[in-house]
Amino acid sequence: MAVSFTSVKCPECGADFQIEEGRDICFCTYCGNKILITNENEHIYRTVDEARVKEAEAKERIRLKELEIEEKENAQDRKSKAISYAVAAGVAVVGALICLFSETAGLIGVVIGMYIAIFTYTKSDNTKKKKRRYVNPDEIVIDEEMLYYREKNYNNVAQMFKSAGFVYVNAIPMDDLNFITQGKNGQVETVTIDGKEDYEEGDIFRKNAPVLITYHSR
User: Fold this and answer.
1) pLDDT digits (tens, 9 = 90+) for 90-118
2) What is the pTM of this model?
3) Total Cβ atoms within 10 A of residue 4
4) To which H or E segment does residue 84 belong?
5) All domains of the chain, ordered by start, with CATH?
6) Nearest to 140 by CA among 102, 169, 110
């Protein structure tokens, strides 16, 4: 019995190749992409990749969570501004009323009110906030304590990063001390995370990112 073939096009790489008629699933002979034939008569194909679908769904959930966090922060910021401006306006009004009895004291009140308003506006515009995002269970956010490791004992610093959740934490002695500088023995010189030393508070790393601690030794 002769075997019939039909020509198909891979939706991933665009290559044309032959498959046996009647097959429901095939793989592209060029890129290896898995293809499901959904309509045999019209030869309509779609790529089946459950891993990519799940990854896309996870990214969408994370993006929505980030937007939720950002909106909450913006709402809190707007509320703080409103309170500050209300206080500033109140102080200015009181100062203006005091001017009716004491011009000097009244002017001081007005100036204080203006200062509060200007300070609130300037702080809001000039403060650069690091964009926060939803943190996965396999990620760690760098806190302030992790930035101040110099001159601390390497064992304590290593334990701090392990307690934070980092899996691969290693300490390497520098063998750089002599009789005069032996007082620095055991003190940390650098801490790199995933090869980076210039991380900041709020930066996010995966738990399996390697943490390398160098410390003074003799």
Assistant:
1) 666 666 666 666 666 656 655 666 666 66
2) 0.45
3) 8
4) helix 50-98
5) 5-48 (2.20.28.160), 52-126 (no CATH), 139-215 (3.30.10)
6) 169
